[in-house]
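Handout, tutorial session.
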Amino acid sequence: MKPIAAEWGARSKTPDTRAEFWRWRRARALPEALPLSPAMRGAMIRGWFTARLIKHLELDERGVRIWVPDHSGPGGCYRDFPRPLLATDTIADPELLPAVLESVLLAMVEVNTRASLEPMAPYSRLRDLGRSGRGGGYESYLQPSAELLAWIGDGRGPVRDPEAGESLEERRKTAEHRFDRLHANYTRYFAEVERRTDVMDVPASYDLRFDVLAALSDLRRAVTHVADPAEEGDLW
């Protein structure tokens, strides 16, 4: 790993040298190239959209960061995904997710060189935000994750979203609307990509089209069934 880390360190300074570093190194479609099981990949994609909804992601010219809570206590901080990412061009919004996932390879290289799992913390956070229910699994998504459920319940998070609504019902409707809108936008985007005739004009997000649409459908379905605990009372 150290030779790879040294070469990346030397070539990560500009888009041209990053492109040279990564040229011809990925021979498969992105789902097969990522060192992630299908369940982990799906969970991270759900976690990405969850993090964007509940304002746990920060995106700016410096890079991409995600809120990672402390293991003990109520605190936490924003942690950087690899910076720079493997992507060499200005990243349009639909392509940011695949760029972040592909860059997990850089985080793994850094784990090896630093002898620490800390570089993987942002990806672990994505995974946990995409798990089913409170401490559930990753293979299926039957209930909103604990963080998404808490956000719908009381709007808690590192950043308050004034447009999310003041009540549980308003925030649930906000989540439904945003997941519906994202699903529609991605559906149109992928349909437009399918009409392209140049194979070099196919973006990385197209490789993840089935995962992305499935993740958004799972999230939309799960938030629909969130009910106010005060209304359920001791029914169950």
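The second record follows below. Compare its token runs with those of the first.
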Amino acid sequence: MELRGEANNWLYHATCKIRFAEDRDAVRQELREHLEDEIAAVQEATEVSQDDAEKIVVQRMGDADEVGERLAAVHTPWMGALWRLSKVLLVLACILVIFSAIRERTNNWAYNFELFSTEPLSEVKSTPTDGRRVIPGPALFVPGEDPDQETAFSCEEQVKVGTQTVKLRNCAIWRTAENHTDLFLHIRLEDHRFWEIGQLMGGLFTVADGRGNTCECIALEGGSGFHHTEYLIQAFDFDPASDFIQISYGPDGSIFSFRVDIPDAA
């Protein structure tokens, strides 16, 4: 049923003083439905026209201005303002949660990325964990004068795997103990669709030197950002006389691989 002159006029004046738009629309709709029901009931009982039925119902409802004053007193503006404020605070809380998550990942990345820092340190090696391996510390990819460093260099090899990009950023060869020389690789996994970024598994890496010798290797996660993860690969007993590095990942190296020439190989 569509309300006509009498009922529409009453409905407007009864609700126009409610200042909060959401409340005003909700009250107006509730009163409209009530008026329609009452008008239909009067028509069914008396068989009068809709216009006459509207006049009867409006008289029963009382003065529209008085009704409007009472409704405006109940639906005060501060309640509307409080409702708006609560929605704003909810949005801000969601933004804060997302920002905190990003910041936590970024802080984690910044802390762990010391592993690949270019800042020189006086002590570049940590205590060996197995009695013979000495893993270089934050300066391991920085070319320097340390007699245990065979070579260190940057490279920008990369390969696309689905939506993700795998980048080989840095390489270094160090004497980690007497008669033991290890290769270190800095690998970065990127995916701008951050919700899909995966992880590399150390057990799926295969590293070989230029003479075909396969090295046992481990992978350490070196921190992460919002859409990337850093990895440190350590390949044990790498031949320092090799002129290139062959890196493969996956069963039988089937997912991706890099071949990197070693500049100024020893």
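Points raised in discussion: Residues 5-75 form one domain.
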